[in-house]
């Protein structure tokens, strides 16, 4: 009542023209009119000192919609391709705020990989929806390697004829040749022009003729390690020499020119990327008119847009209860597929008291895999894994049987854990401080670990920080135990980055993500890397994984699958088991029947 | 009035400088590494390092600050650290969406709030008044983004009357307005609660004025007293308060744009925050600052226009 009288008094002064602007603002804000975020805060900062409206800048005109070229090749549409008028645009709500880069040789974020996958091709490709199998892409077939007299390895690729580049703002459509392939692979190998140059160390590329490319590898690699380098992943994507030279490396980040089933149409920052069908695609005209990628970082908005029918496919929520909820909708379907990110423990063997193997083993015996699975609602989103290298997705990982046979499956055994701690002279327990990201997947796993360790007398204090801060801090070696969640394309990358002594954080010659300071399997990793017999190579990787578990420096908690929601009107055109592009895969065979 | 306007514009310079400095510092002391944030967990160390270099984050802070001010003085808002595109282009693309949403929400707020405010004032302490006050209190208590989700659920998902995504191209005016309805209601209904409360209080206050009593004593019909005398005076403070509503709504649009996946300054800003896009973030905040300063100035000037008793000195 008192406030109401004061308010009315103020109104009276206002009506009588005796109130100042300052007073109006102050009281208005006190009344709660400016409760919402930035505007009022700024208003409060600087009221009464206005300035001219932003102006003076004369921005360049908006970019015209690209892709208006006139392709010179007519594709051979697949039987059953609907005429263009009937084709639909697929609306995809991506779990992202924006693209980072559409230069395939830098693309790493999920949304970037999704778009790059639709626009570009590579010499070979992972079968759509199945990252365990390769098939030819721009190459006519997958070649067998040849050994040269000087011990090098040669892979010779014969290119398809008649593959046309998308027309761009500064290039007409033209036919792909060996020049493009050599140029592109050389770009991938150049550390200034690619984030994946290290993958191409020891490789040279040459044009034999317009449709033949020779790649020389020294030292030789097994197909398991070589083929991903020329597949549709990371540096393997082939870019157009003419387009990149004409536009420059900077411009292709937001205007990619490829040979894929969809070509770039437009980009609106923080809003959308539009792709349109490439009717000259060498596998046939797409059955979609295009794909519209909307950036929707709010999960509720994505879900509601899917339910309202405005989105055909959306990035989901990594939780099995979300999957169940979507599947209960009559017209919707949740898709859960690999590749999965593996969540695993890294125990720092250089730090007391974890430098005692009994302490590390005690920690592993305290872990309850089921409790960690429950962080994501259990299967199908999260599944158990028995080595850091996930056997489900790549050779070199351990299955449950193999881990049990080798005696490294562990399993929760609190008595044994306490006994090991007692033997190590730590029967009264000890304390650890661990930094965790605020992201649910990390924070919840750390919280479960905190509870597990409490039961064997180890007190864990958690310090929750911003996600990227956590990444910085763990690379500064602050955590005696690091939970890391990652996917890497093959066992060699997993083992090298996380368990080779070169990669030890801070002190290693090439510090990367070896948080455990482990240095006992360098020889196995290096042997496996140059082993050209795939079976022998896989065996070496398995040995390395067993040793990691025996020494209790790394321990897999689970892997987390990709989760998407889609309308049942969408048919991807392939079964989705796993995808390195981290989305279900939209190809020339994908349809929407609304 | 011209001298007053010029003086106000000049006075804005040091304030803006202080705001810009605060913006620059806040954006940089925020925790997190932009390169890591931008590339995500799948990125290799090599990719993160390459992006960090490309972003120029290794340069000294003061160099970045001087460059920021110098560029701003030239009207150059810089390029996005992430995509390399000119920030001004991106802001220019989304600004109309935010301004349009704000204007539509003000309209909703006034169209709903003013009549209810008048009715509840005229019928003070009746059932109508109580209902109006409870509803407006409820409106004040609901966050705009939550109301947005409820509106989407009922009107887009269940009834399918409006789209869940709150924007269409300007080139399609019908679809554009259709898509604007829910976001405008989401913001405007809450603003209507404020307007209702303000209008009620202003009208109540005016109704107790001597000249209103005199008009009644003269035997004028209540309709003439209300519309011919009381409301004309009551509208003066409301007009000046529209500026405040606009500032509040521009701020409130941040989450509304995110919920409706609608282009706008707010969505741009949230995206920039998530990606740690320093250039983009500080430029958006600069634009916000300019807009708010401008609204303040216009409101001040308008205040004098609607109320002749105000003199600019």
Automatic annotation (TrEMBL), chain A:
Regions of compositional bias (Pro residues) in chain numbering: 51-64
GO terms for biological process, alphabetical: peptide transport
Superkingdom as given in the UniProt entry: Bacteria
Keywords: Coiled coil, Signal, Transport
Pfam family, one: SBP_bac_5
Family stated for the protein in its record: Belongs to the bacterial solute-binding protein 5 family.
Stated name of the protein: ABC transporter substrate-binding protein
Organism: Thermalbibacter longus
TrEMBL record, chain B:
Keywords: Cell membrane, Membrane, Transmembrane, Transmembrane helix, Transport
Source taxon at top rank: Bacteria
UniProt-listed Pfam families: BPD_transp_1 (PF00528), BPD_transp_1_N (PF19300)
Compartments where found: Cell membrane
Main location: membrane
Transmembrane segment boundaries: 9-30, 101-122, 134-155, 175-195, 235-255, 285-306
An MF annotation (GO) of this entry: dipeptide transmembrane transporter activity
Matches recorded under PANTHER family: DIPEPTIDE TRANSPORT SYSTEM PERMEASE PROTEIN DPPB-RELATED (PTHR43163:SF6)
Protein name listed in UniProt: ABC transporter permease
Organism: Thermalbibacter longus
UniProt lineage: Bacteria, Pseudomonadati, Thermomicrobiota, Thermomicrobia, Thermomicrobiales
């Amino acid at each position: 009542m008192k406030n109401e009288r004061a308010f009315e008094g103020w109104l009276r002064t206002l009506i009588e023209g005796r109130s100042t602007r300052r007073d109006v603002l102050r009281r208005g804000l006190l009344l709660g009119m400016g409760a919402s975020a930035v505007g009022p805060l700024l208003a409060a900062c600087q009221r009464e000192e206005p300035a001219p409206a932003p102006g003076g800048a004369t921005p360049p005109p908006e970019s015209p919609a690209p892709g208006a070229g006139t392709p010179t090749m007519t594709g051979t549409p697949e039987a059953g391709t609907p005429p263009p008028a009937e084709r639909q645009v697929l609306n995809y709500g991506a779990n992202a705020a924006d693209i980072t880069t559409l230069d395939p040789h830098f693309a790493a974020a999920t949304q970037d990989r999704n778009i790059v996958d639709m626009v570009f091709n590579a010499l070979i490709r992972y079968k759509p929806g199945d990252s365990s199998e390769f098939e030819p892409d721009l190459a006519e077939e997958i070649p067998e390697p040849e050994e040269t007299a000087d011990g090098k390895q040669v892979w010779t690729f014969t290119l398809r004829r008649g593959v046309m580049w998308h027309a761009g703002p500064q290039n007409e459509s033209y036919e792909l040749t060996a020049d493009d392939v050599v140029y592109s692979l050389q770009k991938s190998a150049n550390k200034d022009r690619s984030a994946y140059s290290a993958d191409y160390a020891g490789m040279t590329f040459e044009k034999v003729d317009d449709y033949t490319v020779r790649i020389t590898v020294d030292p030789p690699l097994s197909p398991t390690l070589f083929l991903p380098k020329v597949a549709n992943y990371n540096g393997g994507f082939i870019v157009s020499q003419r387009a990149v030279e004409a536009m420059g490396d900077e411009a292709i980040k937001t205007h990619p020119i490829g040979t894929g089933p969809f070509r770039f149409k437009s980009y609106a920052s923080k809003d959308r990327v539009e792709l349109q069908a490439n009717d000259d695609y060498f596998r046939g005209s797409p059955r979609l008119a295009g794909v519209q990628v909307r950036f929707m970082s709010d999960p509720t908005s994505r879900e509601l847009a899917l339910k309202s029918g405005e989105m055909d496919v959306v990035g989901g929520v990594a939780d099995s209860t979300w999957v169940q909820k979507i599947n209960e909708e009559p017209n919707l379907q949740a898709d859960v597929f690999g590749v999965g990110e593996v969540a695993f423990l890294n125990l720092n063997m250089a730090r007391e008291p974890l430098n005692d193997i009994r302490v590390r083993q005690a920690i592993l015996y305290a872990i309850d895999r089921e409790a960690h699975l429950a962080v994501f609602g259990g299967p199908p989103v999260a599944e158990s894994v028995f080595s850091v290298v996930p056997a489900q997705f790549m050779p070199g990982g351990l299955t449950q049987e193999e881990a049990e046979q080798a005696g490294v499956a562990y399993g929760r055994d609190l008595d044994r854990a306490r006994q090991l701690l007692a033997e190590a002279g730590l029967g009264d327990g000890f304390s650890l401080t661990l930094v965790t990201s605020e992201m649910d997947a990390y924070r919840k796993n750390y919280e479960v670990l905190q509870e597990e360790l409490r039961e064997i007398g180890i007190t864990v204090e958690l310090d929750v920080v911003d996600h990227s801060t956590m990444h910085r801090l763990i690379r500064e070696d602050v955590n005696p135990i690091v939970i890391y969640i990652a996917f890497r394309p093959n066992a060699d990358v997993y083992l090298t980055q996380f368990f080779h002594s070169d990669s030890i954080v801070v002190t290693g010659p090439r510090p990367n993500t070896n948080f455990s300071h482990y240095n006992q399997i360098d020889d196995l990793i290096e042997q496996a890397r140059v082993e050209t017999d795939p079976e022998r190579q896989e065996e070496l990787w398995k040995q390395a994984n067993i040793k990691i578990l025996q020494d209790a420096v790394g321990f897999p908690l689970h892997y987390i699958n990709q989760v998407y929601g889609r309308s049942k009107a969408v048919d991807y055109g392939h079964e989705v088991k796993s995808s390195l592009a981290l989305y279900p895969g939209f190809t020339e065979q994908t349809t929407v029947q609304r | 009035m011209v001298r007053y306007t010029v003086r106000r514009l000049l006075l804005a310079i040091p304030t803006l400088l202080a705001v810009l400095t605060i913006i620059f510092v806040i954006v940089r002391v925020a925790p997190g590494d932009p390169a890591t944030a931008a590339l995500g967990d799948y990125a290799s160390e090599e990719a993160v390092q390459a992006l960090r270099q490309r972003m120029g984050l290794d340069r000294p802070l003061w160099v970045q600050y001087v460059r920021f001010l110098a560029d701003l003085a030239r009207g150059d808002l810089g390029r996005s650290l992430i995509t390399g595109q000119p920030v001004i282009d991106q802001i220019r693309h989304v600004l109309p969406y935010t301004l349009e949403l704000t204007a539509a929400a003000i309209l909703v707020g006034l169209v709903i709030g003013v009549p209810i405010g008048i009715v509840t004032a005229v019928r003070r302490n009746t059932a109508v008044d109580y209902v109006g006050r409870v509803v407006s209190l409820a409106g004040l208590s609901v966050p705009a983004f939550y109301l947005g989700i409820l509106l989407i659920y009922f009107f887009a998902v269940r009834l399918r009357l409006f789209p869940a995504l709150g924007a269409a191209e300007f080139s399609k005016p019908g679809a554009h307005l259709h898509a604007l309805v829910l976001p405008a209601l989401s913001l405007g209904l809450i603003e209507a609660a404020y307007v209702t409360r303000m209008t009620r209080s202003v009208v109540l206050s005016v109704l107790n004025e001597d000249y209103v009593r005199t008009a009644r004593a003269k035997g004028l019909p209540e309709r003439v007293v209300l519309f011919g005398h009381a409301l004309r005076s009551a509208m003066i403070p409301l007009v000046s308060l529209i500026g405040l509503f606009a500032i509040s709504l521009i701020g409130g649009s941040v989450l509304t744009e995110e919920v409706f996946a609608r282009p706008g300054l707010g969505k741009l800003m949230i995206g920039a925050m998530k990606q740690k896009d320093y250039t983009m973030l500080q430029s958006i905040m600069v634009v916000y600052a300019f807009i708010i300063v401008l609204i303040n100035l216009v409101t001040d000037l308008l205040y004098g226009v609607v109320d002749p008793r105000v003199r600019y000195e």
